[in-house]
Amino acid sequence: MSLQFHRYNAMYTRVLHPVRTPVKSGFPTVYQQAEELGGTFTRIQKGLPENSIANFSPCVLQHKGSMLIAWRSQPEPFCFRADMKYFYYNSTPTDIYVGQLFSDDTIAAPKKLRSNKHKLSYEDPRLFLTPDDALYCQFVTSSYATRWDTSKHLLVSQPKICVGEVNEYGELVDCVYPPVGVNLVPGQAEKNWCFFSDKNSLRLLYSTLPLVIKTPGEPDKEINSECLTQVTGPHATFNSTAPVDLGDEWLVFFHWKHMAMETATAQPHLVYHLSAYCLDKKMTKITRMVKEPLFSGSKNDEVITWTDCVGNAVSSQPACILPFGCYVEDDELVMSLGVNDCFMGIFRTGVFEIMALMDPV
Question: Looking at the whole model, is its pTM more than 0.85?
Answer without folding.
Answer: yes
